[in-house]
Specification:
heterodimer; A: about 325 residues; mainly alpha; MetI-like fold; two-stranded antiparallel sheet; disordered N terminus; B: about 300 residues; 2 domains; about 0% strand; globular
């Protein structure tokens, strides 16, 4: 933000130097042009972000009532106030699904980001050697695998009978069950860790690359080793990038949908309402209650908003402290 | 860079005994071994599913269950490809083509729209600027999957459900792409260049087309690739919007096969070879365009 303010100041300074006549002559162009450039984006934004939200908000306040019994009666929408919200929150499986993804996120997000940060820090030293580029690519590539396909792959690796991991461990007397009620959530988390660690590593690595190298020189002269340099200088310096990846990861977790939906086809331990989003679509499609589904979608959006804001408070405080 | 600068001075005295020089930097030598082992474990972890997929793609349905999973058995890659092509009148390739259309056309439209908006937000002063910028930032907190249900209802209302456009249009709005475009525009263009071109009599559109766009190319490639991946990954909206299986993208088709394979045994090998074929184009694109997206991400790292 500060750099943009400076750019503005520099720009207007240059304009004044050249005389106000020149600026006036060209003023009509720049006044209309910016709107032309943002118009397609703003129009589509209004149509596909703002309108659906208003539409969902409106729908969530009604319910469909049927006259008479069964197929013959016609149906009409009646105002229901916040009834759908109350109905959604009274469904234990919907409330439980939030608990499940929050537990999932509390474990998966720090694990994945920690893993990504450690890898980025290693790649930022000479320790990876000549293989650095190749290794980075290997870590990153799972990101290009669609999450549906990633879940399909891991589903095969979890299934007894096909999985070389389950069968191999069984051959040496270790019996693992990746699909049991107690392990399934973490098996899904693993798919996610596998898929997104790489892209987070790349973002953190890019941030590490921008730290002025003379800082390390100073640290080395003070006798700090690689580990100390990493913890005391590098990690605090990339705090903004960590913050960014953290927020995106949290949003990603709460909207978990693709992986559990795919894994559901090989185990009965993933219910139709396993995550909040799955519950929204269960209510909308199989449940056939669009109004309830809309209310549930809005609740999910609000929870994500609140969690993101709450998450920014301690991180921002830490950011300010390390910035000093 | 600095290490290289410092090295010659050190080298004079420490070259014969390079190890102590290294130890001075890395007091714990076991640390080096730990890092190596960690990297090796990480590489194995990230490669295992890909390796298994390659091996499994070459197996017949019998070998899939009866032979050790990480070892090659009878080589049936070609048979599997033929079966994939024959199944259901070649519907798989139709799905792959659909994905290419959704992702290719979608990513190009999205990048164009984002670059234009990002450029305007970076170089112009206009009244709605703060509002557009603020709403864009805020909307990054609204997950696409939460919007999917309302968007689906909207598409039904305007008659676009079960059409190509129903999947293509909503994905053009990509607030993160706009933010990246603002970042790239700020780092690659100065207002002075724009001012100078304006004084030379160039129109605003011409300045954008001939000066801004070429300078923003590395950033645009990054946005394009992220949009492409995001769109190839798209699953929820197509599932809701498309009833007609000939319009499905490959993700929806494959997950459908996976569900049916519980009752139709032959489908498992098709799901596996289909998964491999759906990943290959993405791997090729990303590996060959490495130079661009890495540069784009470096700029991102610089600004955040």
């Amino acid at each position: 933000m500060s750099s943009s303010t400076r750019a503005v100041a520099a720009g207007s300074g240059a304009a004044t130097a050249r005389g106000s006549r020149g600026v006036k002559r060209h003023a009509p162009g720049p006044r209309v042009a910016p709107y032309g450039f943002v118009l397609p984006y703003v129009a589509l934004f209004l149509l596909f972000v703002v309108t659906p939200i208003i539409f969902a908000g409106y729908n969530s306040l009604f319910k469909v009532e049927r006259n008479g019994l069964g197929l013959g009666g016609d149906s009409h929408a009646v105002f229901f106030g916040l009834g759908n919200y109350a109905l959604a929150l009274s469904k234990p499986e919907f409330v439980e699904s939030f608990g499940r993804v929050l537990l999932f996120g509390a474990v998966q997000v720090p694990t994945m980001l920690g893993f990504a940060l450690v890898l980025a820090l290693i790649f930022d030293t000479e320790l990876a050697g000549r293989l650095k580029s190749a290794l980075q690519l290997i870590v990153f590539l799972p990101f290009v695998v669609p999450s549906v396909v990633a879940a399909l792959l891991w589903a095969f690796l979890y299934q007894p009978g096909v999985s070389p991991i389950v069968d191999g461990l069984a051959a040496v007397g270790v019996h693992v069950d990746f699909l049991s009620p107690s392990s399934i959530l973490w098996s899904i988390a693993n798919v996610n860790v596998w898929a997104v660690t790489g892209v987070n590593m790349i973002i953190l690595y890019a941030a590490l690359q921008t730290i002025p190298k003379d800082l390390y020189e100073a640290a080395r002269l003070d006798g700090a080793g690689e580990l100390r340099t990493a913890l005391r200088i590098k990690v605090p310096m990339v705090a903004p990038a960590i913050f960014l990846t953290l927020i995106f990861s949290i949003i990603g977790t709460i909207q978990l949908y693709n992986e559990p939906t795919v894994i559901r086809s090989i185990t009965a331990n993933v219910s139709a309402n396993y995550t909040p989003n799955m519950a929204v679509f269960e209510a909308t499609t199989r449940g056939g209650n669009i109004n309830l589904g809309s209310a549930m979608a809005i609740i999910v959006g609000l929870v994500i908003f609140v969690v993101s804001v709450v998450a920014t408070v301690p991180v921002n405080r830490w950011r300010k402290r390390v910035a000093m | 860079m600095d290490v290289a600068d410092v090295a010659p001075a050190d080298e004079v005295e420490t070259r014969p005994k390079a190890a102590p020089a290294f130890q001075r930097r890395m007091p714990l030598d076991p640390g080096r071994t730990v890092v190596r082992v960690f990297l090796l474990a990480a590489v194995v972890y990230f490669l295992i599913p890909a390796y298994w997929l390659l091996v499994a793609s070459t197996k017949s349905i019998g070998d899939l269950y009866d032979s050790p999973g990480f070892l090659f058995a009878g080589f049936h890659l070609w048979d599997n490809l033929v079966n994939l092509t024959k199944y259901d009148g070649g519907v798989y390739w139709r799905w792959l083509l659909n994905s290419a259309i959704y992702s290719g056309v979608g990513a190009i439209l999205m990048t164009t729209v984002s670059i234009a908006a990002g450029y305007a937000l970076a170089v112009y002063e206009f009244r709605a600027k703060t509002l557009v910028f603020g709403i864009t930032l805020g909307s990054m907190l609204i997950p696409q999957t939460v919007l999917a249900q309302p968007i689906y209802r909207l598409l039904v209302a305007i008659g676009l459900s079960n059409t190509y456009w129903g999947v293509l249009l909503p994905q053009i709005v990509f607030p993160f792409g706009v933010i990246l475009a603002v970042v790239y525009a700020r780092s690659s263009l100065s207002r002075e260049i724009v001012e100078a071109a304006r004084l030379d009599g160039a129109s605003e559109w011409r300045i954008f087309r001939t000066i801004a766009v070429p300078l923003m190319i590395p950033g645009s490639v990054t946005i394009l690739l992220f949009a492409f991946i995001g769109s190839w990954n798209n699953y929820l909206l197509p599932v809701l919007v498309l009833n007609d299986s000939s319009l499905w993208p490959v993700t929806v088709g494959l997950s459908g096969w996976n569900q049916s394979s519980v009752t139709i045994p032959g489908l498992q090998t098709l799901t596996i070879i289909g998964a491999l074929m759906s990943i290959l184009p993405l791997v090729v694109i990303f590996v060959s365009l490495q130079r661009y997206w890495k540069k784009g991400l470096d700029i991102t790292g610089d600004r955040f």
